[in-house]
Amino acid sequence: MSLPAFSKHLRVLERARLIRRRREGRLHLIRARPAGAKEAQQWMTRYIAGWQSSFDALERLLEHDSE
């Protein structure tokens, strides 16, 4: 993986609040944020129920059309 690609991945994780980054001179200190992972999990849990409902409705529609 190239350095620019790695940096881009870190920026995405930082924007998602999954990591925290700070600089000390030329060093970049990166720390995981467990609270950020919990927030992401809560967000996914809210949307999974809706997605599951939509997939169930699609499955019923496809079963009805095949009959």
Key terms for this structure?
2 helices; 67 residues; elongated; 2 domains; two-stranded antiparallel ribbon; alpha+beta
Polypeptide structure, described:
The protein is an alpha+beta fold. It folds into 2 domains: 1-32, no CATH class; 34-67. Helix content is 69%, strand content 18%. A hairpin with a 2-residue loop joins strand 1 (19-24) and strand 2. It is elongated and about 70 Å long. The protein starts with a helix and ends with a helix.
Please indicate the count of domains.
2
Poorly predicted runs: none
N-end to C-end Cα span: 50 Å
Secondary-structure element sequence? HEEH
Give, in spatial order, the strands making up the sheet with the most strands: 1-2
Number of helices: 2
- Average predicted confidence as pLDDT: 89
Portion in beta strands: 15-25%
Overall geometric form: elongated
Class inferred from helices and paired strands:
alpha+beta
Please compute the radius of gyration using only Cα atoms.
Answer: 20 Å
**How many strands appear in the DSSP assignment?**
2
Biggest sheet, in brief? 2 strands, antiparallel
Helix content: 55-70%
